[in-house]
């Protein structure tokens, strides 16, 4: 049978475009005489006579406010006042709360359908429009009726707490090293977070464990511990986070210690992006493929494997404060340790705003015991005026008390400066009372005219008798403390020389003590990019670190040069560490967006160990279920090492479950649902849905408006996406849920016929059992069906009701044209 497409197909397409995109529900009449249809009496345009007409029923739709997506809801559509041609969406009071309306606008809203559905008609300029083709309910409201918004931020009323679920995130690192003389060492470590989400509450447990063994008859050592058990939730109206259980003092004024109790702290992430602070950064140089562990008071905050050479870790949470312990474990068994002070400048408070932290409880130990008196701790920072901030706080714990007061000043073109003093009183049984002060000066400045920045510079001096809470607990319960601070100098700065294509970075800290040798650490790097003859985008970088810890000195100098070549980069590096030197030639290549590798070979000499050859390799793969890296090294006359790292997680909810790469130790994530369609690329293919159509995007920002999209260019040929972008603004630790609208299946031409040989009317709709429209009938029952599954049943709708259904055959010959009987619904 040969099918003929007539000009009326273009006419109906134009009509749909004109009347299907309207925002206001108004009725129109169609002049069917313009259509080239054989049976002009068998036409049903009733659902197009009213803009955005939707049949009564329940629909899973994305609630959208001014084109921003809020969340997915099951939204009922009812006939208003019993009129069949007046079908309206029922907005529940819960949905209205999520719109972010001002209080005065909320007071104008009335309700219908037994006070279950909101009527927004009293809000001048507000419109509500259903969009089934994109599975959305679009609400347009004038900006004057809404709370403050930002292009990348929405008010607290529109934040999404996500759905209930379970999660398990892990980070596994393992290595086997064969030393000269047939000695063998094995080590493995695991860290991560597990927990559950219930409403706005997040219950979490942080864990860490390790295993080591050697071949010299030594017993293997293994341990596993729950390092922290806690629960937290956002308090949006206070702009703060409530935490219960085991926690660490997070203060700009006082040092950090572990406690069990309750804490409330304002969270800058709840502010618009332009008003938020910054996260700390850790930098250094790895002499071999190495494991970097960042911890605070024994709790692992971040762990990763890095290739040999300079590294900069910038992915720590902005909520991290205080002094961090950094441990770099090299493959040859050597270890670097140093500390990084992440203190921020406490005067950064906008006029009229108050930032604060409070905590109540008792100090606790790593093994969950209680050790110390009841205490109350708190600090605040108040923006007094445009250029002044007042801050202070106190710790009160019976035999230990401390108060602090400070003042911050915006110097405008000269940067910003703050100064504060802390007074402590401590009584330890059997010892004299200790009373002392600690002074601090902090400075920050961005030099736009020279494209440079002093990120943080500070000086602190503590008297001999001054004690922090941590020192007091150590002295009272562990027979004395060591490392009593005296002076601390800290600076972090960077500068770009655009004309010379040079970038410089510097970090420096100098810590002196009353009772032990001083510690020094600096890291400086200079990079330049340039062209030479026919060679383009060459790069040269020089990095140097010096550290002196407990009287032991460690110097490292690293020189690297790189040249883009093909799909990768050819590089040279030279390194000196104390009296030993090494040179290597390497190649870094990207196989695709998920796979990369690095190969190096060279020599090392000096230090009384002669000259040895060395080779190493590093391979990284982002899989569907886990991030993986494999590294291997061989050093002549020294060792051979093989390592493996895995990072990923599992997220389980009532909407679906998936294994996934990343995880971020229990942090915010988004569960995406593609309606049972598997292998769908999300976020440029970094995430792919599993066989059940579920995927998890783990690198989601908290309280930040984020778009997540399907890469339509990588979709299979039999898959179409009518809704390929979703938006979300999730609270901290939430498991968000969003659905994409996809059709997967065959595409065929068909003629639908009723039992008496006639056809369903021109304009009738063909829908699958998920409520998705697959086609609109043309003259003579002609339909182009897309996204069909063989053997499924499809409903045909006209006059506002499901009138009949068709059954798709279980198999089809190639290029078949179907004649489908339409069976009565009775």
From TrEMBL:
Listed InterPro entries: Fimb_usher, FimD_plug_dom, PapC-like_C, PapC-like_C_sf, PapC_N, PapC_N_sf
A Pfam family recorded for this sequence: PapC_N
UniProtKB keywords: Cell outer membrane, Membrane, Signal, Transmembrane, Transmembrane beta strand, Transport
Domain PapC-like C-terminal residue range list: 753-807
Membrane topology classification: Multi-pass membrane protein
PapC N-terminal domain span: 29-173
Subcellular location per the Swiss-Prot or TrEMBL entry: Cell outer membrane
Similarity annotation: Belongs to the fimbrial export usher family.
Protein name in the entry: Fimbria/pilus outer membrane usher protein
Species for this entry: Serratia aquatilis
